[in-house]
Design a protein that fits this description.
Elements (H helix, E strand, L loop, with lengths): L17 H20 L8 H4 L1 E8 L5 H7 L9 E4 L6 E6 L7 H15 L5 E9 L1 H31 L2 H19 L5 H18 L3 H23 L6 H31 L5 H11 L1 H21 L5 H29 L2 H8 L15
Antiparallel strand pairs: 1-3, 1-4, 2-3
Helix pairs in contact: 1-8, 5-6, 5-7, 5-8, 5-9, 6-7, 8-9, 8-12, 9-10, 9-12, 10-12, 11-12
Amino acid sequence: MGLSFIKHDTKIDFIGFRHWAYGISALLILVGLIAAVWGNGLRMGIDFAGGVIVQLQFEKPVSDEDLKASLDVPALPGITTQRYGESGRDYLLRFSKAENADATQLRSTVNETLAAAFPDNPAEIVRLEIVGPKVGADLTNKALSALYYSILLIAVYISGRFEQRWMAGAAMAAALWGGMYLVGLTGLGMGWLVLLSLGITLAVCLVLRLNFALGAVVGLLHDVLITVGLLALMGVEVDLNVMAALLTLVGYSLNDTIIVYDRLRENLRADPHMDMAALINRSVNQTLSRTILTSGTTFLATLSLFLLGGGVIHDFALTMLIGVVVGTASSVYISSAVLLALGDTAFYVGLVQKKGQYVRPGEHGVV
């Protein structure tokens, strides 16, 4: 018998609370947009914006104010400092790369500046990395493309898996890929290009009535928007670690959505006359134990990384912590609620029954 601490016959009215969930999601997205547009803005890390990152370790603790004041020199333009760990000895420095300066010169400049400011507290440069603006722009484009294509391929998979419309999903993917390529020839930035393509993806799913795919895509966009918005609100820099966490939570959220969708499909076949809201509630309640176990263990593991993993993995763990909570909620209140809004029970019964009914050997006299 599988591990289960919540009975499958629980009757929690999740769909009845969906309007509260809509309000909370809308508020979080609005706060994130305000923080990204009118607040401090979405801070892009060295990986994407270009520049220099230096990891320091002092012999004795140093205050943030003293370190920032000592490094505010023309040779280190746009300097920012970030302390990680509890000892007060470890710092990350980020600044713009001066023209014609190589790694050796930058290392010497930092060492000389620190030696002059803290003669009794020597510092060791543990790591020094330089990312040029061209490399940063290329990484930005690839990261946005990876995020977009992952969501697009997910839409194709969901269309085939739950609606038996593989050809429609493949045609949608081919058309969007071609359209994205043609629009890219106009010189439009990758960010705007991805936003335009995502809008077209949602419109195509709506027109073709690929409701399962549309619900999954809306849920994924909901998770990414809220997570990125909260990161902007907290002033977290978006680097490759954060982008890896975003792609991870996309896959994680999709996994939970598929579990709910799969149980919904089974319940549709078993009782095709039940009200759609009741079917969704039954499916969510039946998978509730699995959802709590999976999300809970993932949350605890990520929380351990956040608390004990150190500064290098701090932002990755923080992004995952937010994403696990938001992604679990979206599987119930966003992805499933889209199905309720766009179709009744009869529409979905026709989809899930396209695969045909299983006939036992000898049932009709034929072995």
